[in-house]
Amino acid sequence: MFNRLGPGHFAGWSAIQFSPDPTVDPDWFGTFELSIYGEPGGVDIQAIDRPDGAYEYVGCSHVLEHVGDDRAALRELLRITAGRGLLYLSIPDPFAEAVTRDWGFPKPEKHGHWRVYGRDVASRFERYVPDQPVLAYRGTDPVTGVSTGAFLLPKSTECYRWIRDRLGADVELFSGPPPG
Predict the structure, then answer these.
(1) Domain residues for 32?
(2) What phi and psi values does residue 112 have, to the nearest 5 degrees?
């Protein structure tokens, strides 16, 4: 997906990545910050100590299911995303389950997940951030060959169109209104 978006597009962008996921290359960005919760300098995504619009790229891969208040986390991630920016959100296969199962506590046997997201995650997004378009990407991991998905939350009409132009039929409006 990011290869198709064109890594050169991110040149000069400020970025923060929550988790040590190799999805993007830090060298694509003007500045790059890695935050790993519980490690020195790590940030709690439910209350991010950064100014509004601090980053053009915010990456959150396989973290949202590990926090107690995913609503607060999603709102915080969008809050720190700049007006022309993009929030990249990946959660374990939300298309495998019909309905999200939220236990209200971290389950040790589920790697500390508070919940397993299901296909109803779109309605969850619409409740949490009703005016934010959420694009769903489905593709194949070039390394593993496994079908995968991710969510892209563009903050501007320009960013929305750039994603739609580059990813074509592999991306669809998942929830929220289209911008503009």
Answers:
(1) 2-175
(2) 80, 15
Amino acid identity at 57: Y
Amino acid (one-letter) located at 21: D
Other beta carbons within 10 angstroms of residue 116's beta carbon come to 19
Q: Quickly count: other Cβ atoms within 10 Å of residue 28's Cβ.
A: 18
pTM for the model stands at 0.92
Helix (H, G, I), strand (E, B) or coil at 57: strand
- The token duo for 39 is 């490690």
Element (H, E) at 158: helix 157-167
Number of domains comprising the chain: 1
Cβ-count burial of 168 within 10 angstroms (0-12 exposed, 13-18 middle, 19+ buried)? exposed
pLDDT digits (tens, 9 = 90+) for 96-136: 888 999 999 999 999 899 999 988 888 888 899 989 999 99
